[in-house]
Structure formats: C-alpha cells, structure tokens
Amino acid sequence: MKKILFGLVLGVSSLGITSCELNSPKYEEPPQEVGYYSTNRYSHAMFFDVVKQAMEITKLQVDNPTGDKFPAGVTVTPVLEGGKLVSLTVEYSEINGRVGKLEISYTGIPFAEGSSMLIKPVDLSYSGIKIGGPTRLDFKGKEDAKSKFGVIIERGILTDKFGAEIAFGCNLNCEQKEGKVTGTSDDTFTFSGNENGVFVNKVSYNLTITNPIVYTYSSAYASEGKVTMTPSGYTESFSIEFGKGNALNHVYLTYKDKSGLYYI
Predict the structure, then answer these.
(1) DSSP of 32-53
(2) Distance (Å, rounded) from C-alpha 38 to C-alpha 113?
(3) Mind listing the pLDDT tens digit for each residue in 190-200?
(4) Cα–Cα dist 47/5, whole Å
(5) Contact indicator for 228, 236 with CB cutoff of 8 Å
(6) Do 238 and 229 contact (CB within 8 A), yes or no?
(7) Which of 70, 178, 238, 263 has the most crowded Cβ, counting Cβ within 10 A?
C-alpha cells in the first residue's frame, strides 16, 4: 500500500473533543467529516500562503524598485515596460522550507481597482509538498479595507513525496483589513465564496462559506465563521463553525446525529 504523507486526509491522526463542556472534554477519534474539513483547511492554507507571498513581494517591488529590501534567500527579477511592472520572477533558495519559483504577471497597475495578478508556481515546494496550478487575483475597490480582491483557482494540486495528490479549487472574495500593529502580522483576511477539491482517496467535495470566515495573517486557523461541506456520496451536507472553542484549532461539527467540538 502506498504510504500517504497527507495524514489529515482520512482524519485519523487528530483527537476530538466530543463534550461541549470545555473544562472536561472527552477525547476520542474524530468523525470522518472533521478529517475531510482538516484536509480542505490544509489546502486553503497552502495556496493562500502563495497568495500572501506574491502580494508581499509585489508590494516590496513597487515600494522599493531598487530591490534591496527583499528577504534573504529570495531572488526577485522584475520585467518593466515603459517603467510599468508587467511581471516578476521570485526564486526561493530554501527559505522557511520554500524551494522553487513563482512567476507573477500583472494586468494594470498592481493592487489598483480593476487590476489582476496571475501567480504560477514553477517547481515550487513547501517542506517537500509540491504546489502546482495558477491562481488569479482580481482587485476591487478598497473602501475601508486595506485591500479587496477575488481569488480564483481552477485546479490547484498538492503532491507529497510519495506521489499522493489532493486537488483544490476556489472562487473567493477576500477583504484584508489593517491590524493594530505596524506591518501585516495582525491583519485580518475575511473570506466568502466557494471551494472544492478531491482528496487522496478520490472523494470530491464542494464547500460553501455560509458565514464569512476570518483569519489573522499569522494563523492558519479561522477565528470565526461557518462553512458547509458536501463530499461525494453524502446525501446531506455537514457544517463546521469556528470560534466556539477555547483555541483556534477547535471546530464545531454538526452532521445528522453528530455534533460537538473537535481539534483539527
């Protein structure tokens, strides 16, 4: 049997809190539904890290064209036409587990309303997990936000070192708001829209964000919101809610006769 690195896929490596009494939780193996959501969350986190990297590097290039403020281990090659930035190649040499390249092309002035950004990973891996498939960002009016943009991934692929694959796609709207400290470390990202994918076991799924989900910049876990998820073969959707536990990696599952708080 092929060894699978994506341990979250089948949801057997986490422990669940099945009591709603947070001070005296009961620990047991979580339901399959929690494992399915955990894999979706992992996919979202991986691809959105690529988005954040592309946005950060682009902003550094726009604000600092001389290129002397890029992080160590990152080589950036811009292409300009008539003084206008049209593309960037970002190459990582083993920085925070990242190896490979991002090719980023721009339509319009980066981050301006009506502009877009196409992000293509090239031989890119994060700690041995290969990331493939393009992501498009469509920028909208900011209003009171730091940035507003759509995120479209038609078919992203994550591949582990054994060749196992999980697929991920999305059509999301994102709003980035300024945090209280200088920089981006506590900025919040609020998502609405839909996601989809295929797990290692070939089960496909659709996910709908029913209440906007909120992440802080530095966390891979949502602090609030709700999603409904329907894997293939399910006749009913199940829901996952955030912000109900005493830790960010707690989620509240509701499905048929199952309900409770679980770790992811």
Answers:
(1) HHHHHHHHHHHHHHHHHHHHHH
(2) 34
(3) 999 999 999 99
(4) 18
(5) no
(6) yes
(7) 238
